Amino acid sequence: MSDKLVPDIAFDRVSTGFNGRNVLREVSFEIASGEVLCVMGRSGMGKSVTLKLIIGLLTPEAGNISIKGRNIVGIDEDALLQSRRQMGFLFQSGALYSPVSLADNLALPLSRFSKKSTQEIDAIVQTRLDEVGLGKERYKMPAELSGGMTKRAGLARALVLDPCILLADEPTSGLDRVTASEIDDLLLKLKEKNKTTMVIVTHDVREARLLGDRLAVLDQGRFVAIGKLQELESSGNELVRALVSEENCHAR
Amino acid sequence: MNSPARSFFDLIGNLGIFTARTVRRAAVPPFELLMFWQQIGDVGWKSLPLILSSGFAVGLVLTLHTRSTLIRFGAESYIPTVQSLSFFSDIGPLVVGLLIAGRVGAGIGAELAGMRVNEEIDAIEAFSLDSFKLLVVPRILACIVALPLLTVFIDIAGLAGGFLAERISSNISLHLYLNRAFSEVEWGTFIAPTLKTAVFGFIIALVSCWYGYTAKDGSVGVGRAATNSVVTSSLLIIIADVILVKAIFFLFPGSAV
């Protein structure tokens, strides 16, 4: 099978749950290389869980998850760490490593997984921080940053290793409109220039319509709809139509 | 049903698995030396004021109490000897263990639990970094190394407190006090009890890291991890002390004064 046919991410009948509650039920989908999938849905429906399953922070109860054709379910710890190296993850809270400065948060993975000199690492860190407007805050500790700054720093860190897959959990939630647009522009640039494969969990319809090649709506543990925007707009499912409608976009 | 006995054995089993994982990850490079030194500073250096002041106070009070007892038997000249033997053999190591369980154990438990609920540990893992190697292994090694060193300091502080109490009571000279204090001290009465605190350090760090690393339920979980770290490690230190004292008596019969 040629590389072009192998999806970057593939779920095959994946089920998982917590405390006896099914969060995902036999979910299957594929994301091609360079494709952006925006996942929407009501809170608590398993959107963030889907991202954590992709990166292997959670293990499914059943089914297989393949990253670039390689099943990551049940593989050993070292192989899993290896698989994660091709992915960047933006957590909803930013989740910066609190004992070290902002610059060190970005430098940490670079110093471990690249053979770059300290000066080169420093330059990459500065570039990434400049991209998210935090170039002057590099020596600040995570506790000194506002919520929005933490989110932007989290994005800079997620991109520091130039991942070919980016997983973003609500990248613009809690940000003002201007900053949110800047983040969206950055993600759009990644999509268009770098052809980065992305899975973006979002409640922001505007963002989903701007970035998503396909949109998916998760409800009751299943993708009740997955497809292009036009397909979802004409869906027979009322929830799907409500979530992706342009009116909803303006209401926000 | 979760009986206390079942919970206890669950805990011991989990700690055993955690220990095996620690040993396995500690043996594989890269070694987190920077984190290790940082933890030595946090566990050792930052605990020094507490250890010195507590040791001094305990030494002073111990001398005041033993003095009133020994005077009744006309044995007040043995006060420095009693002071040094009791401090070196058990009071110093045990007080260090319990103090560090309170200061460092709660700190480790709360810090790691905070990282867990804030998804910092997930974020470290998401970066292909081994969170266990980065967060757990350095803390455990630092506690194993720092506690024997802190025990030496508490022994010195305890003797200083005892000397002050004796100096005020009987105007004894420092030279005579030290002569009497060390007259009965052998390597077995000092080295083995001091080194046993490495086991205390291991217990404190292991228990606290486990509660912190596996915390859940948000801020409630952070508080619970801190409390459980202190309570469980203190309890296990006391149990370990009983076992280790018997082991030391067996290995160094001369220390069983």
Write a short abstract of this structure:
By secondary structure, chain A is an alpha/beta fold. Chain A has helices at residues 47-54, 77-84, 102-113, 118-131, 147-159, 177-194, 205-211, 229-233, 238-244, 246-251, and strands at residues 9-18, 21-31, 36-41, 62-67, 70-71, 87-90, 165-169, 197-201, 214-219, 222-227. In chain A, 39% of the residues lie in helices and 24% in strands.
Provide the fold topology:
The complex is a heterodimer of chains A (252) and B (257).
Chain A: E1 9-18, E2 21-31, E3 36-41, H1 47-54, E4 62-67, E5 70-71, H2 77-84, E6 87-90, H3 102-113, H4 118-131, H5 147-159, E7 165-169, H6 177-194, E8 197-201, H7 205-211, E9 214-219, E10 222-227, H8 229-233, H9 238-244, H10 246-251
Parallel strand pairs in A: 3-8, 3-9, 6-7, 7-8
Antiparallel strand pairs in A: 1-2, 1-4, 4-5, 9-10
Chain B: H1 4-26, H2 33-43, H3 48-72, H4 79-117, H5 120-126, H6 131-170, H7 174-182, H8 187-213, H9 218-251
Helix pairs in contact in B: 1-6, 2-6, 3-4, 3-6, 4-6, 4-7, 4-8, 4-9, 6-8, 8-9
Strand-residue proportion of chain A: 15-25%
Q: What is the molecular shape of chain B? A: elongated
Instruction: Please list the strands of the largest sheet of chain A in the order they lie side by side.
Output: 6-7-8-3-9-10
Name given to the CATH architecture of the domain at 1-86 and 165-174 and 196-252 in chain A: 3-Layer(aba) Sandwich
Topology pattern of chain B, helix = H, strand = E = HHHHHHHHH
Give the CA-CA distance, first to last residue of chain A: 44 Å
Q: For this entry, what is the oligomeric state of its chains?
A: heterodimer
Helical segment tally of chain B?
9
Structural class of chain B: mainly alpha
Unreliable spans of chain A are none
Along the chain, the helix and strand elements of chain A come as EEEHEEHEHHHEHEHEEHHH
Largest interface: A-B, 25 and 16 residues
* Number of separate domains of chain B: 1
Secondary structure class of chain A reads: alpha/beta
